[in-house]
Automatic annotation (TrEMBL):
All copies of domain U3 small nucleolar RNA-associated protein 13 C-terminal, residue ranges: 639-713
Protein name as it appears in the record: WD_REPEATS_REGION domain-containing protein
Signal peptide, first to last residue: none
Positions of WD repeats: 108-149, 355-397, 404-439, 456-491, 502-543, 544-585, 586-627
InterPro entries registered for this protein in UniProt: Utp13_C, WD40/YVTN_repeat-like_dom_sf, WD40_repeat_CS, WD40_repeat_dom_sf, WD40_rpt
Subcellular location(s) of the protein: Nucleus, Nucleolus
Biological processes, Gene Ontology terms: endonucleolytic cleavage in 5'-ETS of tricistronic rRNA transcript (SSU-rRNA, 5.8S rRNA, LSU-rRNA); endonucleolytic cleavage to generate mature 5'-end of SSU-rRNA from (SSU-rRNA, 5.8S rRNA, LSU-rRNA)
Pfam families, per the entry: Utp13, WD40
Molecular function as annotated in GO: U3 snoRNA binding
Keywords of the record: Nucleus, Repeat, WD repeat
GO CC annotations on file: 90S preribosome; small-subunit processome
PROSITE patterns: WD_REPEATS_1, WD_REPEATS_2, WD_REPEATS_REGION
Keyword Repeat (UniProt): yes
Length: 716
C-alpha cells in the first residue's frame, strides 16, 4: 500500500448461470448443468462457480431443453428455439473444474414448435423429443433418423421410457398415452385421469406408473391391464416429483418439499423451502440430496435425511445495487439486488442465503465499524432495518434488531456512526430529508422501533448518497440538485446542523466519501467528473476528468493518496491525487457499476452492477513489481551471458542462445561475427537448428530486411 495501487485483477466473478429452463445433475453430484440463454453452464457444487460453458454464447437462438447422458459416453443434448438439436460430448479431465466439449451431432427436430421435453431410452439408442405441436418424435441417435412420430391430444409436458421401445407421454390437458414404437398402430392406450397438465410421469416399476398433475392429484395405473389403480389428492398444484427409496417427493406452487408414501396416499413430512414456486426437483443417490429449482432462479441442495438446506445458489441476480463485507474475516458478502431479499454469500463456497424483511427492493447495505456482525439495509419500502448476524455452524441467521419507518419515500442510504461511544444511524431518502436516529435504546433481545432524533430537509431534489466522517462530527450528503452538503453532528444531543455546501457539479451527485486520513471529501457526478473538496475551506482542490460516462461510485484508497471511481459504462479508474492523473482504466462490467467496496486492508475490492455480475478484484501491484524485477534480472543475466560468449568467441553457442531471446540485432551481430571468422561454421549452425528455432530465425530475417544496413545477412 505504500506505493499505491496500480493494477487490479479480476480474481472471481459471480455471474448469472441460470436464467430458466432445464437443469441437469451428474451422477456423482459434483456438477450441475444449467441453461443460461444460448449456452449451458457447468456449475461446480463445491465452490458454487461455473467452471465451463457448453455451446456458443454468440448464438442468437435460446436453449429450450437439455438432457444429460453419462452412459455409454458423457454427453449433453441441447434443443434450441430455432428447431436445432445439438449433442455435445464432454471429455472430462482429472479436475472437476476442467472439461473440453466437442459438438458430436447436430440435426433439425422437424417440430413446428420449440422442443420442451427430451428423454433417452434405457440403452441410450433412442431419443424422444416433445413439443407444444402435440407431437413426440423418436430418433435413432446414431444416424439421426426419426423412426416414429407420435401425435397426442395437446402439448407434450413429460415423457418416460418404460423400456427401449415403449414410452408413456403426458400432455398439458391432463391426458396421457402409452406407445410402442415397434408396433404398426403405435398407440397402446390413452388415459384421461386428470383435468390439468401432467407435470411428471414416474415409473414405479415395469408394472405401474404414476401421473402427477396440477389438478392436485396423483394417479396410478397398471401397465399390464392399463387400468386405474388409485387416485389420491395432494391438495397443492404440483410442478414436479421424483421417486426415491420407495417414497414420493413433490414440489409445487407453495414452495414446499413434501414426502409421501409411494402412491401419494399419506403425507410423511414437509418443509418450506422458498416463498416462490418450485418448478423442478432432482434426486442424487450418491449424495443423498435433492436439487430444487425455484421460479426466482434460485437452486437449493436439500438433504434427504433431515430436509435441511445444505447449499443455496442464486442463478440470476438481475441488477445489483450495493454490497458490503461483514464478519471479522470478511469472508461473508452482503448483496442488495433488484429484490426485497438480501443475499448473504459465503465467499469460500459462494453458497447463498436469503434474508427476508423488506417488502420492496433493497437499495443500500452498510456494516458497522464497531460491530462486525451488525448491518443496516434500506429499501424502497420507505424504511431501513437494523440486523445482527448470528453464526450457527456453516449457516447464518440474521436477527432483526430495529426498524425505522419515518421516511415518506425510498430510503436510498443509511450509515452507522463510525465510533462506538455514542451509536447512531443516519439515513437519507428521495423525500429530500436527512434523519438522525439514536441507538441508545437498542436491545438484542427484541426488535425495537426507532424514532428520529433530528430531521432536516437537506436538498431540493432526491438525496442519493451519504457518508460519515471518521470522528462522527460531520456527515456529507449528495443529491440530484447537483450539490453536496456538509452537516454537523452533535452526538450528545443527537442533533444535526448545516456546515456548508459543496457546489461545482453540473449534474446530479451520485456518491460522496470522506477521506479517513486527511480533511478532504470526494464527490462524483453525472457530469463525468470526480471532485475533491477541502473540508475546512469548502473549496474544490481537485477535479478528476477522464470518464466518458456518469461516475456512480468512488472510494479513497492508499491512505487517501488515490481514488478508485466507477462509472455507468462499466469502467473502473484509479487516480493519483498528487498528479491528478488516471493511472489505470479497467473494463469491469458491461453496464452501470452501482457498488464498489474495499476490504479493510484494501487487498481486495468488490464491484456490482446492472449486468448482475459481482466482481472480486485483487491488488496485484506488488506481484507485478516482483515479476518486472524478475524479468529485469533475467535480462541482465542473459545480456551478461551473451557478452561472455562473444568475448570468448564461442559464436556457435551465442547464435543458438540469441534465438531464445527476443533480440534480432544481437542475433545479427553474432551472424556477422560468424561470417567474418568461418562461414562454414555458420552453415553448420543453421543446419543444426530445430523447427522452432528456424521459424524464429526467419522472423528475425524479416525484420533485418526492413533495414538496408542489416539486409545483407539474409542473402547468406
Amino acid at each position: 500500500m505504500k506505493d499505491g495501487i496500480k493494477t487490479l485483477k479480476l480474481k472471481q466473478c459471480v455471474d448469472a448461470f441460470y436464467t430458466g429452463g432445464s437443469v441437469q445433475w451428474c451422477q456423482n453430484g459434483k456438477t450441475i448443468f444449467t441453461v443460461c440463454g444460448s449456452i449451458v453452464k457447468a456449475l461446480n457444487v463445491e465452490d458454487g462457480l461455473p467452471c465451463y460453458d457448453i455451446g456458443n454464447a454468440d448464438d442468437n437462438s435460446q436453449i429450450t431443453c437439455a438432457v444429460l447422458l453419462e452412459e455409454p459416453s458423457f454427453s449433453i443434448t441441447l434443443a434450441y428455439a430455432n428447431g436445432l438439436i445439438c449433442r455435445y460430448t464432454l471429455h472430462s479431465t482429472d479436475s472437476v473444474k476442467k472439461c473440453s466439449t466437442e459438438l458430436n451431432r447436430r440435426w433439425k427436430s422437424v417440430h413446428s414448435a420449440p422442443v420442451t421435453v427430451m428423454k433417452y431410452c434405457n440403452d441410450a439408442t433412442l431419443l424422444a423429443t416433445g413439443a407444444p405441436d402435440f407431437l413426440v418424435k423418436v430418433w435413432n441417435v446414431d444416424n439421426q433418423n426419426c423412426i416414429a412420430s407420435l401425435r397426442g391430444p395437446s402439448a407434450v409436458s413429460d415423457i418416460v421410457f418404460v423400456d427401449s421401445l415403449r414410452l408413456i407421454v403426458g400432455y398439458s390437458d391432463g391426458s396421457s398415452s402409452f406407445f410402442d414404437v415397434s408396433s404398426e398402430t403405435k398407440l397402446i392406450y390413452t388415459w384421461k385421469l386428470h383435468t390439468s397438465q401432467i407435470v411428471s410421469v414416474l415409473l414405479q416399476d415395469e408394472k405401474e406408473v404414476s401421473f402427477l398433475s396440477r389438478d392436485q392429484t396423483v394417479s396410478t395405473v397398471n401397465l399390464e391391464t392399463c387400468k386405474k389403480v388409485k387416485v389420491m389428492p395432494v391438495f397443492e398444484p404440483m410442478e414436479c416429483g421424483v421417486l426415491a427409496d420407495h417414497e414420493l417427493f413433490t414440489v409445487g406452487e407453495e414452495g414446499i418439499l413434501k414426502c409421501w408414501t409411494k402412491n401419494g396416499s399419506k403425507l410423511i413430512r414437509s418443509i418450506k423451502i422458498s416463498d416462490c414456486r418450485i418448478d423442478e426437483i432432482l434426486y442424487n443417490e450418491v449424495q443423498s440430496q435433492f436439487l430444487l429449482v425455484a421460479s426466482d432462479f434460485n437452486l437449493y441442495l436439500v438433504s434427504k435425511e433431515n430436509f435441511s438446506i445444505t447449499r443455496r445458489y442464486v442463478g440470476f441476480n438481475d441488477e445489483i445495487f450495493d454490497t458490503a463485507f461483514i464478519g471479522d474475516e470478511e469472508n461473508t458478502l452482503l448483496v442488495a439486488a433488484n429484490s426485497p431479499d438480501i443475499r448473504l454469500y459465503d465467499t469460500k463456497t459462494w453458497s447463498c442465503q436469503l434474508i427476508r424483511g423488506h417488502t420492496d427492493n433493497v437499495l443500500s447495505i452498510s456494516s458497522a465499524a464497531w460491530d462486525s456482525s451488525m448491518f443496516v439495509s434500506s429499501a424502497k419500502d420507505n424504511s431501513f432495518i437494523l440486523w445482527k448476524l448470528v453464526t450457527e455452524g456453516t449457516l447464518f441467521e440474521a436477527k432483526k434488531l430495529a426498524v425505522a419507518t419515518g421516511h415518506t419515500n425510498n430510503v436510498t442510504a443509511a450509515c452507522f456512526s463510525r465510533m462506538s461511544k455514542r451509536k447512531f444511524i443516519l439515513s437519507v431518502s428521495h423525500d429530500c430529508t436527512l434523519k438522525l436516529w439514536s441507538l441508545a435504546k437498542l436491545s438484542e433481545d427484541e426488535c425495537v422501533k426507532l424514532s428520529a432524533s433530528s430531521t432536516f430537509v437537506a436538498h431540493a431534489k432526491e438525496i442519493t448518497c451519504l457518508d460519515i466522517s471518521a470522528n462522527d462530527r460531520l456527515c456529507v450528503t449528495g443529491s440530484m440538485d447537483k450539490t453536496a452538503k456538509l452537516w454537523h453532528i452533535d452526538s450528545k444531543t443527537m442533533q444535526l446542523g448545516i456546515a456548508g455546501t459543496l457546489p461545482g457539479h453540473r449534474r446530479g451527485v451520485w456518491d460522496v466519501r470522506f477521506c479517513d486520513f486527511s480533511e478532504i471529501v470526494g464527490t462524483c457526478s453525472g457530469d463525468h467528473s470526480v471532485r475533491v473538496f477541502s473540508i475546512s475551506s469548502r473549496e474544490c482542490i481537485a477535479t478528476l476528468v477522464g470518464h466518458s460516462f456518469a461516475v456512480l461510485q468512488m472510494i479513497f484508497v492508499s491512505h487517501g493518496k488515490q481514488i478508485i471511481s466507477a462509472d455507468s459504462g462499466g469502467l473502473l479508474k484509479i487516480w493519483d491525487l498528487n498528479t491528478k492523473e488516471c493511472i489505470k482504466t479497467t473494463e469491469a462490467h458491461y453496464d452501470k457499476i452501482w457498488a464498489l467496496v474495499a476490504s479493510e486492508d484494501e487487498s481486495k475490492f468488490v464491484t456490482g452492477g446492472s449486468d448482475g455480475r459481482i466482481g472480486i478484484w485483487e491488488d496485484v501491484t506488488a506481484k507485478e513489481l516482483e515479476e518486472e524485477e524478475r524479468l529485469r534480472a533475467k535480462r541482465v543475466s542473459d545480456d551478461q551471458k551473451l557478452s561472455n560468449l562473444m568475448e570468448q568467441k564461442r559464436f556457435s553457442e551465442a547464435f543458438s542462445f540469441t534465438l531464445t531471446l527476443d533480440k534480432p540485432y544481437s542475433c545479427y551481430m553474432v551472424i556477422s561475427k560468424l561470417m567474418e571468422t568461418d562461414s562454414l561454421e555458420l552453415t553448420k549452425c543453421v543446419a543444426a537448428l530445430s523447427r522452432e528455432q528456424l521459424v524464429t530465425l526467419l522472423d528475425f530475417a524479416t525484420k533485418w530486411n526492413t533495414n538496408g544496413r542489416t539486409a545483407r545477412v539474409i542473402f547468406l
